[in-house]
Design goal:
The structure holds 2 protein chains of 2 kinds.
Chain A lengths: L7 H11 L1 H22 L6 H32 L4 H35 L10 E9 L7 E4 L12 E4 L2 E9 L4 E5 L6 E6 L5 E6 L4 E7 L9 E4 L11 E9 L6 E8 L8 E5 L5
Antiparallel strand pairs in A: 1-2, 1-12, 2-5, 3-4, 3-12, 4-5, 6-7, 6-9, 7-8, 8-11, 9-10, 10-11
Chain B lengths: L1 H24 L8 H12 L3 H17 L6 H19 L5 H25 L5 H30 L14
The chains are: A alpha+beta, B mainly alpha.
């Protein structure tokens, strides 16, 4: 009977051995949760792990992207020319129409320049812009980010605006030495302070995957479909007057303070290849 | 060592397909979640702390190429791995139907956890977007899983991934 009793420490060791895997797994989950929580609190900072993996992964992504695009170019330019004649005709027609518009816009541009001088507005060219190439898109279906080939060595820092000639693309986050990731305006985490160009009413544009939603525009404001929405410059990231999107749909419910406005981004975010990072933007 | 290298290369290939090849060739917003399928494979092949650690590392790597909330996928894929473990240990995972059920459950769990994680990160409309595209994502994941199973069977690569021998149709 006495022989069946063992040392008290032995039972403890057995219990530890039995639950070792569970304890290790619990520690792992705790570590994962702590990491996530830490990242949520210090969002602009990019950890060493992220920097290293970004630097290791992006050259491979860039190489594969170049290979895919070269193959696609070869196919489209030399092998697949079925629609070229029709396309040429459409392009000639568009060219004539655009030349007419251009003459009209020149006049508006000159007028705009005079007004800008008069009001002492800052010229857009005073913003130092860094051209960059898109290397890869977000790997997940639920988020909207891109990877670009410029990083902290080129002067890019977290929270800088990213634009194209058509309008805003997003803002930078997670910066490594030679690469940065850009949070697109259509991502659910993105929100931008905006102004409706005609009514001058302000609102917050939030991304929802494929488009944008314009929130907090008062119910009695007249908003028309196709109206341009620009940055208001009050958010602290984007300079004033950059195109964000055009109004796609306006819904007014019977009650409520605000109207529901859907927007389409002015930049085709599914087809961007080159972008500009505004290095010193002053809202 | 060979298995670790194979796992690393498979992860890299999955990430390249999702972030570069799929957008350039297909151009659809909804992409097949090959990293999630890899986690499902992991749940079938590994039943120890090693599997949990691999799932967490996979999620941490995924965080660098997907989303704007570092740490989210680490938690999500680790939880998906644990969520699939009871199915993998209690049922006959050699059945292709059950494997597809695991992919379905994995996709559902993944979407649910991303929505949950998104609330903590103040990602306002993420839940609407995930719910709107969930069916497309599920369908795409299932189609990809079927294609992968057929390819693995065709080339006899189940052993390489330490998967149970897939049943013959």
């Amino acid at each position: 009977m006495v022989g069946t009793f063992s040392h008290p420490g032995c039972g403890m060791r057995l219990a530890l051995k039995k639950f070792r895997t569970i304890a290790l797994c619990a520690c792992l989950m705790l570590a994962a949760l702590l990491l996530y929580s830490d990242h949520l609190r210090q969002r602009p900072a990019t950890s060493l792990f992220h920097r290293v993996i970004l630097q290791l992964t992006s050259p491979v992504q860039g190489g594969v992207r170049t290979l895919v695009h070269s193959t696609a170019d070869l196919w489209q330019h030399y092998l697949w020319l079925v629609d070229t004649a029709t396309e040429n005709e459409i392009l000639r027609r568009d060219n004539r129409r655009l030349q007419a518009s251009l003459r009209e816009f020149d006049e508006i541009r000159f007028e705009n320049q005079r007004l800008k001088k008069l009001l002492d507005f800052r010229e857009a060219s005073s913003l130092k812009a860094l051209p960059a190439r898109v290397v890869a898109e977000d790997a997940s279906s639920w988020f909207r980010t891109i990877l670009i080939d410029k990083g902290s060595n080129d002067g890019v820092a977290s929270g800088m605006p990213v634009v194209t000639a058509e309008g805003i693309v997003g803002r930078t986050f997670q910066i490594s030495d030679h690469e940065s990731r850009v949070l697109l305006v259509t991502d659910a985490s993105s929100s931008i302070a905006t102004t409706l160009q005609q009514s001058r009413s302000r609102g917050i544009a939030r991304g929802h995957g494929s488009g944008l939603q314009l929130n907090y525009v008062e119910r009695n404001t007249e908003v028309s479909v196709g109206e341009l929405v620009i940055t208001s410059g009050t958010g602290g990231v984007f300079p004033k007057g950059l195109a964000v999107g055009t109004v796609d749909q306006v819904e007014r419910e019977e009650f409520g303070l605000f109207q529901r406005i859907s927007m389409r981004p002015t930049v085709d975010l599914t087809r961007i290849e080159e972008i500009l990072v505004l290095l010193r933007s002053e809202p | 060592m060979k298995r670790v290298l194979l796992f690393f290369l498979t992860c890299l290939m999955a990430i390249l397909i999702q972030s570069v090849l799929w957008p350039a060739v297909v151009g659809l917003d909804v992409k097949p979640d090959l990293v999630l399928l890899l986690t499902v494979c992991l749940a079938m092949a590994e039943r120890s702390f090693r599997g949990s650690f691999a799932a967490f590392m996979l999620g941490s790597w995924y965080d660098i190429v997907a989303g704007s909330h570092p740490g989210l996928h680490g938690v999500v894929l680790l939880t998906v791995y644990w969520g699939l473990q009871p199915i993998a240990t209690r049922f006959n995972v050699e059945s292709t139907v059950l494997q597809m059920i695991m992919v379905g459950v994995g996709t559902l769990l993944h979407a649910f956890l991303v929505i949950g994680g998104g609330f903590f990160a103040e990602a306002g409309g993420l839940w609407q977007f995930v719910l709107m595209n969930f069916l497309q994502q599920l369908l795409l994941n299932l189609v990809c899983a079927v294609v992968l199973v057929l390819l693995l069977r065709r080339f006899g690569l189940e052993r390489w991934f330490c998967l149970p021998q897939l049943e013959k149709v």
